[in-house]
Design goal:
Oligomer: heterodimer
Strand order of the largest sheet of chain B: 1-6-10-7-8-9
Largest sheet of chain A: 7 strands, antiparallel
Order of helices and strands of chain B: EEEHEHEHEHEEEEEHEHH
Low-confidence stretches of chain A: 1-9
Distance between the termini of chain A: 31 Å
Structural class of chain B: alpha/beta
Number of strands of chain B: 12
Structural class of chain A: alpha+beta
Helix content of chain B: 25-40%
Number of helices of chain B: 7
Largest sheet of chain B: 6 strands, mixed
Strand order of the largest sheet of chain A: 13-10-12-11-15-16-14
Mean pLDDT of chain A: 91
């Protein structure tokens, strides 16, 4: 069986730690019998009788999207109602059974899969859209709604979701909120901390906290929902979200620019920000290797060879505005100033002429993540560092790996950088032939030390999960981490909510 | 060489029938008809292959003032100049015979003579697929429709075209001047590069009205009704085989 042959690096490191925490119980047939009292058979996948599923059927839930983290759970429960979630957690809390809440399982830090045999609670069956008000734009939906289906639901009313990410076809809104997903639109619409108006959360002991308000303004006491946003399933299970959706832009355009040198990115950003001002909705960076990989793996239509000659990196700019002619005039003005200056910041670029080309240009950027997965095994470092240091950080990591003799076909194949330049967020990806301990050791704590020296964040938007619990101290002080532990105890005294994630065991 | 470029609702847009049931809601994103985009691309590629043998590429559109966008795209892709036969915004879209007559009038106005006219095989809004064939008939020129490959031999003044037909391709040899209509597999249209977009602004666009060309664009067909296909009635999920059997029996399906 293939699953036995995969190296279980992180799980192997953490599972013993989870076992040492003696207070946890493992699932038994008795527990399954209890769940069967209020859950239909279709909501239970388990290797226990009478379900007797094979371990293979549980793989999509036990393994993370990257194939790097492998849980060993025997059971997945898929409740359909908040009440069912409450009943599950009440039981697990009493029995001290650790649980892993799971949405679309598209997370990149191993936060959505078990470390050992924790019970997986999947929100996939909770996929009702509860309401949408086309005047205020407030959408209320179950946590298991897939982001793309929410987008499709509100599109006829000329609204869009404030978050957008490459995983939109699989990720669920509950997971997006639990991880405070950033994505491609943050530059324009802000973070989920601002756009989420209310949450319905089931706490560790089964209590339902109904804060599912649709009010835009409500200053009445501590804003508890802010704690759950980004808590990665460690403080409670989000079962419904109330979110403010912005009106869809009347006019959208995008362009991809080929730059001769990385040092042009910052000055370009300044000019673009100034000239496009309120219509700028995305400013993304892709280095040459990332672009080549995206093209190699068929993500979106490539630019022609002479267009990309001499390009060290690319920038994707998107505009969203209320009036087509107005936006085109601004873009025209921008292009003129870029081409007519003595020292051109760009070699050339391409402007979308139709919605089809618009998608194709975006695919070149959004497809990098998938291209990386097809190319090899990725070590992902999603970091916030000063814009000016983006290239140096990537080059530095490459040189560091070269000096350790790890830069070759059987170890590290590529070191690439791409990301939300507008937000100061770089996705550093080290693409290897296989996950090897030597590569892991060469990268950590080296990368974290570099980030720390630049006073950056070791995880800009991906979160901590299981992958970065040991690195939390590089970006948060001892005082802060101690307060986090205290808060965790308040919400989850028995520590059953996604143990080993965010905070070290 | 003369590619024609029609403006149609973009194929990525979800179409809705208008409340009067006389047509579709046109208040959505429009862009150049994809087959016409392929036509413009083919014209530009022919110039890349034949170099100075291609003396000029002109893009033509017949439509409302907004149609100028499709001409700008065509110019940005590599056309040298454009002709816009402007019709008022409120007028109905011209029918294939009227378009063909207009194109014929434009071609006859060209002193240097036109060797090849490339059109999309059909417009994706009406899916009629008639204009190219009618034009060839009016001009008494040969036609090569649904082209998936075009090879021009300038010396012999001949073109070999592979046409898409059911079950494969048909290769035909035609003499110039020729009408070609493009099919999907002919090429993949290029992106408009920024330098070309800038250059396109300076390229000439000549405007005509239907009257200037002596053509009557009055529709000869009347659309009686447009309806959407019947909505699919949702299915239901069953929890077990027994339930499935019960539901099948309910629906009157018995065992064979």
């Amino acid at each position: 069986m293939l699953s036995l042959l995969r190296p279980r690096l992180v799980s192997a490191r953490l599972a013993p730690r989870l076992s040492r925490v003696a207070c946890y119980s493992s699932l038994t047939e008795n527990d399954l019998a209890h769940f069967a009292k209020f859950l239909p058979p279709t909501s239970i996948i388990s290797t226990f009788p009478p379900y007797s599923s094979s371990a293979d059927e549980l793989l999509p839930f036990n393994d993370d999207w990257m194939g790097r983290f492998h849980g060993m759970s025997s059971t997945v429960l898929r409740p359909k109602t908040t009440q069912q979630v409450s009943q599950i957690l009440k039981w697990c809390n009493e029995r001290r059974i650790p649980v892993v809440p799971q949405g679309g399982n598209t997370g990149l830090v191993g936060g959505s899969v078990p470390i050992k045999d924790e019970l997986i609670i999947s929100l996939s069956n909770m996929n009702n859209i509860r309401s949408f008000d086309p005047i205020s734009g407030v959408l209320v939906a179950d946590a298991g709604c897939i982001l793309q289906s929410l987008t499709d639901h509100i599109a006829p009313h000329d609204h869009i979701m404030p978050v957008d990410l490459g995983a939109k076809g699989s990720c669920q809104i509950g997971g997006n909120v639990a991880t405070n997903a950033g994505g491609l639109r943050l530059l324009r619409y802000g973070s989920l901390h601002g756009t989420v108006l209310g949450l319905e959360v089931v706490l560790a002991d089964g209590t339902v906290l109904d804060q599912l308000t649709t009010l835009r303004k409500d200053n009445t006491g501590y804003d508890l929902k802010q704690l759950f946003i980004g808590s990665e399933g460690t403080l409670g299970i989000i079962t419904a979200v109330s979110i403010l959706t912005p009106p869809a832009p009347e006019a959208s355009n995008n362009l991809i620019l080929a730059l001769p040198s990385f040092s042009n990115v910052l000055p370009l950003y300044q000019i673009v920000k100034r000239q496009l001002s309120e219509i700028l909705s995305a400013f993304e960076y892709i280095d040459r290797t990332a672009y080549n990989l995206a093209v190699k793996h068929g993500q979106g239509r490539a630019l022609s060879d002479d267009e990309v000659e001499g390009a060290e990196c690319f920038v994707l700019v998107e505009t969203s505005g209320g009036h087509r002619e107005h936006d085109e005039e601004k873009l025209s003005h921008l292009l003129e100033s870029l081409f007519e200056s003595d020292t051109s910041l760009i070699n050339t670029g391409v402007l979308s002429q139709s919605p089809a080309q618009f998608s194709s240009i975006w695919a070149l950027r959004e497809g990098v993540t998938e291209a990386v997965s097809k190319e090899g095994k990725a070590y992902k470092y999603d970091i916030s560092v000063p814009l000016a240091s983006f290239k140096d950080v990537v080059d530095g990591v490459r040189e560091h790996l070269r000096s350790k003799g790890l830069l070759h076909d059987k170890a590290v194949k590529h070191v690439i950088g791409y990301g939300h330049v507008g937000d100061g967020n770089l996705h550093l990806n080290v693409v290897a032939d296989a996950y090897l301990p030597e590569i892991q050791d060469a990268l950590e704590p080296y990368v974290y030390e570099v980030v720390s020296s630049l006073r950056g964040s070791i995880s800009a938007e991906h979160g901590i999960g299981a992958a970065k619990t040991h690195a939390l101290s590089y970006s948060k002080s001892v005082v802060a981490i101690e307060l986090m532990r205290k808060i965790k105890t308040v919400f989850d005294p028995h520590g059953i909510m996604n143990p080993g994630k965010v905070l070290e065991l | 060489m003369r590619p024609s470029a029609a403006r149609a609702v973009d194929f990525a847009v979800k179409i809705r029938v208008n409340p009067q049931q006389t047509g579709i809601d046109t208040n959505v994103k429009h862009s150049m008809n994809p087959f016409d985009e392929i036509a413009v691309e083919e014209a530009v590629r022919l110039r890349e292959r034949l170099k100075t043998e291609v003396k000029s590429i002109q893009a033509v559109t017949i439509g409302s003032p907004k149609s100028i966008d499709t001409l700008r795209t065509a110019l940005a892709m590599g056309a040298d100049s454009a002709i816009h036969v402007e019709i008022p915004e409120s007028d109905p879209a011209p029918e294939p015979l009227a378009v063909a007559k207009t194109l014929k009038a434009i071609i006859e106005k060209q002193k240097e003579g036109i060797d090849i006219v490339i059109l999309g095989k059909q417009a994706i809004d009406d899916d009629l697929g008639l204009t190219g064939q009618m034009l060839a008939g009016l001009l008494n020129w040969p036609q090569a429709t649904f082209a998936s490959k075009v090879e021009v031999d300038v010396a012999k003044r001949e073109v070999v075209v592979v046409r898409e037909i059911d079950g494969g391709g048909e290769e035909i040899r035609c003499k110039l001047p020729l009408v070609i209509t493009t099919d999907l597999r002919l090429n993949v249209p290029r992106y408009a590069t920024l330098p070309n977009i800038m250059k396109a602004k300076k390229k000439p666009v000549t405007k005509y009205s239907a009257a200037d060309l002596g053509v009557d664009l009055t529709p000869q067909l009347e659309t009686l009704k447009v309806t959407e296909p019947p909505t699919r009635v949702g299915g239901g999920k069953v929890e077990s085989v027994d339930e499935l059997v019960a539901k099948l029996k309910e629906a009157g399906i018995t065992a064979v």
